Amino acid sequence: MTIYQNLIAGEWTGADAVENINPSDTKEVVGLYASGSAADTKNAIAAAKAAFPAWSRSGIWERHVILKKAGDEIMARKDELGALLAREEGKTLPEAIGETIRASQIFEFFAGEALRLAGEVVPSVRPNIGVEITREPLGVIGIITPWNFPIAIPAWKIAPALCYGNTVVFKPAELVPGCSWAIVDILNRAGLPKGVLNLVMGKGSVVGQTMLDSPDLAGITFTGSVGTGKRVAVSSIEHNRKIQLEMGGKNPMVILDDADLNVAVEAAANSAFFSTGQRCTASSRLIVTEGIHDRFVAAMTEKLKSLNVDHALKTGTHIGPVVDERQLKTDIDYIEIGRQEGAKLAFGGELISRDTPGFYLQPALFTEATNQMRISREEIFGPVASVIRVKDYDEALAVANDTPFGLSSGIATTSLKHATHFKRNAEAGMVMVNLPTAGVDFHVPFGGRKGSSYGSREQGKYAAEFFTVVKTAYTLA
């Protein structure tokens, strides 16, 4: 079987490899992917550093053309790449193709942004002096991405990094190297100069740690766990490094008495259980007011009964497998914790068998939960959600905000008054009204508050805040 190698200084390299296993069918090896060493990582950083002077001064048309080519190829191969994504991560094929399309749109957007680079010319308060305010590339960027969105998240970090003239050392999650390798291969063939984009797949303890220890990275953009994010932050202080951290959430979906029940159930089910609940924007806390509580629980239970858990590539599958055995154990452990805490398991939570061996788990819905339980405080990152009964809107808002996280927050209501108040007072970076908490457009900012995020927003024109530095220049006329 071919080994998919790392890309360092424009050359494919690496003999040591690990198997990429399909969570829908653990007998299938998706591919063999290189496992980089500390030396590989140092070489990649050196290559990016050497390539930075020329790339940072490259023409905007060159950057535009390369990013546009990449976006076009991803779109043309959306079915193929979507199938690869579904095989290595377990996301259903329609979701996987949708994520692939989003990656293409991200590259298209930043191809356009390359042609829209602009600054300001303003008058000085002193006579005969002009002031120019411009943005310049930050430098060598370390990119560390998670396994749950293996093509979209790399796209929304790599595309702006290159658009604004930075060079990159990219480490994808060990579980899902396939889509990352494909993106790097596409960009490499699109015409990127050697060393501008370097791919080092491998263990976080080796590749990631070497990146954290390097004084040559001007910035690190990271998406992953809270614990690892804190390590990125602490290590970066020593090097005076710019950081951008996205670290998850415990997102609420509020259901008010006046909500359209069908809208509420669809939004809650999508938020909590689609993508197997493996989204940092998933709603695992369903905060429901008394008047609609029983009807909502009954309707949600019926909805969950209708959802088919099966092979990610099979037609009719609504929910694919959990990504791997370790995450499956985490999910099962939290389901037991919920029982021990006194919550009632109203539906699901059982391991299930299918035609192929995989990590299949029936979605779990708890009722009679409180906001103080561990299942309501800690991010599970699986198809597990808890219903928390509250008296009214005021209590619902208070419970929604009572969390160390603040990424996404949703509400189902037909009240303009409550919707407007919630948008203003929900302590989250993103707020959804009568929509799932998961799912944001590619051209708008993504990010949260409190323990969910640190640093500037990702995506859209706001990406410039992280990937560039501002320069102010004065000229005497």
Keywords for this structure?
single chain, Aldehyde Dehydrogenase, Chain A, domain 1, seven-stranded mixed β-sheet, six-stranded mixed β-sheet
Secondary-structure map:
Elements: E1 3-4, E2 6-8, E3 11-13, E4 17-22, E5 25-34, H1 38-56, H2 60-76, H3 78-89, H4 93-114, E6 120-123, E7 129-137, E8 140-144, H5 152-163, E9 167-171, H6 177-189, E10 197-199, H7 204-213, E11 219-223, H8 226-238, E12 242-246, E13 251-255, H9 261-273, E14 283-289, H10 290-306, H11 325-341, E15 344-347, E16 364-369, H12 374-377, E17 384-390, H13 393-401, E18 408-412, H14 416-425, E19 430-433, E20 453-454, H15 464-467, E21 468-476
Parallel strand pairs: 1-5, 8-9, 8-11, 9-10, 11-12, 13-14, 13-18, 14-17, 16-17, 18-19
Antiparallel strand pairs: 2-3, 4-5, 6-7, 7-21, 12-20, 15-16
Brief account:
The protein has helices at residues 38-56, 60-76, 78-89, 93-114, 152-163, 177-189, 204-213, 226-238, 261-273, 290-306, 325-341, 374-377, 393-401, 416-425, 464-467, and strands at 3-4, 6-8, 11-13, 17-22, 25-34, 120-123, 129-137, 140-144, 167-171, 197-199, 219-223, 242-246, 251-255, 283-289, 344-347, 364-369, 384-390, 408-412, 430-433, 453-454, 468-476. With 477 residues, it is of the alpha/beta class.
